[in-house]
Description:
The chain folds into two domains: 8-245, Aldolase class I (TIM Barrel); 264-320, no CATH class. Helix content is 41%, strand content 14%. The longest helix is centred in the C-terminal third of the chain and has 18 residues, at 282-299. It contains 14 helices and eight strands. The chain has an eight-stranded parallel beta barrel with strand order 1-2-3-4-5-6-7-8, surrounded by seven helices. Helix 1 packs across helix 11 (264-276), helix 3 (80-92) runs parallel beside helix 5 and helix 5 runs parallel beside helix 6 (155-166). Keywords: Flavoprotein, FMN, NADP, Oxidoreductase, RNA-binding, tRNA processing, tRNA-binding.
Amino acid sequence: MVVPDTPALILAPMEGLTDAPMRAVQGELGAFTFAVSEFLRVSAVVPPAHVFHRHVPELRQGARTPSGLPVHVQLLGGDPGRMAEAAVVACDAGAQAVDINFGCPAPTVNRHDGGATLLKHPKRIREIVAAVRGALPRDVPVSAKLRLGWDSEDAIFENAAMAAEGGAAWLTIHGRTREQGYKPPALWCPIRVVRECLGIPVVANGDIWSLAAFRRCREETGCIHFMLGRGALADPSLSHQVARELGLLPAAPPPTDDTPVDWRPPLTRLLHWTECGPATSPGRIVCRFKQWLKIASLYGTFTDFESIKRAQSVEEIFTLLGRPVDRC
Ligand SMILES: Cc1cc2nc3c(=O)[nH]c(=O)nc-3n(C[C@H](O)[C@H](O)[C@H](O)COP(=O)(O)O)c2cc1C
């Protein structure tokens, strides 16, 4: 939960990346305040409880990962009534906080009246947030995650005001329009303006790849609440570095060398938590490993992706990383 004067560091929802096993890993090895689930789409039919439990298995364990990291449930959809009903089902299934997605740029999602398409309709944002807020007990916070706009960066001012008017307890803003996709750089300045105008906390998000980028983002936005997505996966130490700066972890002396990241411990934990969940084929696990290491090579310092990308098994990947797999 995000409250005004207490810093927070949030693990971003990333569909296909930050699923339950990855959230479990980040809960153990990261330094986050909470995580937000990948979006659950609310289309013609309100998803029943078992769908929430499959999508966010943490709901059966007090909405926390095995190590205790709280997980908020994210909903995506354009119909206020169905979104409200879905939020109630989510809470009955165990959700303790609900986030609403107004940022997904995927064409299929947008064609079906969900995600970033709602940024073209500020009043609908207010209606959806108000409907969800009104349907839930007061102690369940409702938040909203927005991009700056559909094609205009200025749209954030009205959209954010509408989400706040609808009753969002806080907003997360990814500093890009839908049209900008993931093209760098993210724009952080509008986040400052929204934060200064609205009376609710604002979480800054987008392109925090390093401690230096975090410091620039904090400077430009004036925020004390941050969300890390790809940067946290690319560099497993980033959440710790940022959490220290935010005072969420005790200060530590700066690192004295550039020791490369040892990817075996996080991958071993991902393997463990994947094997604890529903049956997953060995091929799928290999894909998950490659997906994570690809992010580390694109945005971090991992240099061996070329050799890993042809690997056929988990064992082969660990051997290429320097040591046989050590299941735990
Ligand atoms: C593969 C992928 C999947 C994503 N899925 C979601 C999602 O389910 N819900 C959401 O609100 N944002 C989603 N996002 C957006 C991220 O939460 C975040 O806003 C974006 O990646 C910018 O932050 P970053 O630069 O720290 O990664 C996704 C991003 C990526 C790259």
